[in-house]
């Protein structure tokens, strides 16, 4: 069984081909191509939807050709064509879904509309040796640029929402704080790099909504903003706060920058670890998983893993290359769904606000 998938929900174009053989092993990833558009959006300080969709239109056919060449597979041998159908940017989602639908119609094969969040949620199970790809019950923490949520997973497509962010996603907070600090986009890897040599205890930053199942990161972002104003206020004489922060004319001392990044990162990690462990204890599930772009963060992976070990939970994280947006996770979700007989109508529309539960 072979699935070819497209991921075009935001600014990454991905094409992947995944094959499940009829033996005792897990699926083989025959190809996974990703084209990042970071450089095209960086100068605007965020994603510009029209630029993203124009680039998807350029990259999708090229990556399709590269993937089929790498897999040495004619398109006629693909058993189903999958695409992310939401959530995401409408004009971006449309490109991958349209190409996948066209191929499905042209080759007379099923079309699979996949929820991007399900792709992330299942990614920690990718690469296993189980040919049935069983999804064991787990507490799943999805942390990305657009989403922060805790889900109780009982099995494939059996999901219960435990909590989600009421304002910014964790990745969004990393990106916004990095921008404030004059660091590049995406902000997560930049902050992680500076945090590596910093003191996470130097600055006292808030851990919000600790007694709730939901998350909130906008207060933390604002706290960093005021702290930064206080720090640079000593060196900078611009007439108002807005100018001070947007001007980035100030130069933060290297030690202060590292300590600020480390303190901010630790504030996010503390909240994520605490709520995830509380959910695992409450829902009596023996396995904890983490996925999404923010789960590339080495300190988060380590601290969540250690906290799980202390409390007797098994811990699984997606491989770092599977954490940020890619089509392999969409192909995997598509394959699992195909194995249980799921198919979508080619008339099914993309949905920018598609819910997971
Ligand atoms: O999953 P993803 O590629 O896209 C969405 O579905 O949103 O996640 C991208 C997010 C960005 O906000 C980025 O700053 C964050 O993941 N990220 C990180 C790290 N690498 C990427 N955050 C913290 N530490 C990292 N190492
Ligand atoms: Zn994502």
Topology of helices and strands:
Blueprint: E1 2-7, E2 12-19, E3 28-36, H1 38-42, H2 49-71, E4 80-86, H3 90-107, E5 111-115, H4 116-122, E6 138-143, E7 148-155, E8 158-164, H5 170-180, H6 187-195, H7 218-233, H8 241-247, H9 254-283, E9 287-291, H10 298-311, E10 314-317, H11 320-323, H12 328-339
Parallel strand pairs: 1-4, 4-5, 6-9, 9-10
Antiparallel strand pairs: 1-2, 2-3, 6-7, 7-8
Helix pairs in contact: 2-3, 4-12, 5-6, 5-7, 6-9, 9-10
The protein binds 5'-O-[(R)-(carboxyoxy)(hydroxy)phosphoryl]adenosine (KG4) and zinc ion (ZN).
5'-O-[(R)-(carboxyoxy)(hydroxy)phosphoryl]adenosine is lined by residues 10, 144-146, 171, 174-175, 186-189, 192, 292-294, 296-297, 324-325.
Concise synopsis of the structure shown:
It contains twelve helices and ten strands. It has helices spanning 38-42, 49-71, 90-107, 116-122, 170-180, 187-195, 218-233, 241-247, 254-283, 298-311, 320-323, 328-339, and strands at 2-7, 12-19, 28-36, 80-86, 111-115, 138-143, 148-155, 158-164, 287-291, 314-317.
């Amino acid at each position: 069984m072979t699935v070819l998938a497209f991921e075009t929900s935001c600014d990454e174009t991905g094409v992947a081909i995944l094959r499940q053989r009829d033996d005792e092993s897990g699926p083989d990833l025959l190809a996974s191509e990703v084209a990042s558009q970071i450089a095209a959006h960086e100068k605007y300080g965020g994603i510009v939807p029209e630029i993203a969709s124009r680039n998807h239109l350029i990259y999708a056919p090229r990556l399709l050709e590269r993937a089929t060449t790498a897999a040495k597979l004619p398109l006629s041998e693909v058993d189903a064509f999958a695409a992310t159908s939401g959530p995401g940017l409408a004009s971006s989602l449309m490109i991958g879904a349209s190409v996948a639908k066209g191929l499905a119609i042209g080759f007379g094969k099923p079309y699979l509309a996949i929820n991007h969040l399900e792709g992330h949620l299942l990614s920690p199970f990718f690469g296993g040796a189980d040919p049935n790809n069983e999804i064991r019950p787990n507490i799943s923490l999805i942390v990305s640029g657009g989403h922060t949520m805790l889900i109780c997973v009982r099995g494939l497509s059996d999901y219960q929402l435990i909590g989600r962010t009421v304002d910014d996603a964790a990745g969004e907070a990393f990106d916004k704080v990095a921008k404030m600090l004059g660091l590049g986009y995406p902000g997560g890897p930049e902050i992680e790099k500076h945090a590596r040599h910093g003191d996470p205890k130097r600055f006292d930053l808030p851990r919000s909504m600790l007694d709730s199942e939901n998350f909130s990161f906008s207060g933390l972002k604002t706290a960093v903003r005021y702290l930064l104003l206080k720090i640079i206020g000593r060196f900078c004489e611009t007439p108002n706060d807005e100018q001070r922060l947007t001007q980035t004319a100030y130069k933060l001392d290297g030690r202060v920058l590292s300590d600020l990044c480390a303190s901010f990162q630790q504030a996010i990690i503390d909240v994520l670890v605490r709520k995830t462990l509380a959910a695992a204890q409450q829902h009596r599930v023996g396995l904890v998983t983490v996925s999404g772009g923010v789960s590339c963060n080495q300190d988060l992976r380590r601290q969540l893993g250690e906290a799980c070990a202390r409390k007797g939970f098994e811990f699984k994280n997606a491989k770092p290359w599977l954490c940020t947006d890619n089509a392999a996770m969409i192909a995997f979700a598509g394959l699992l769904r195909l194995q249980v007989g799921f198919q979508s109508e080619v008339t099914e529309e993309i949905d920018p606000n598609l819910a997971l539960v």
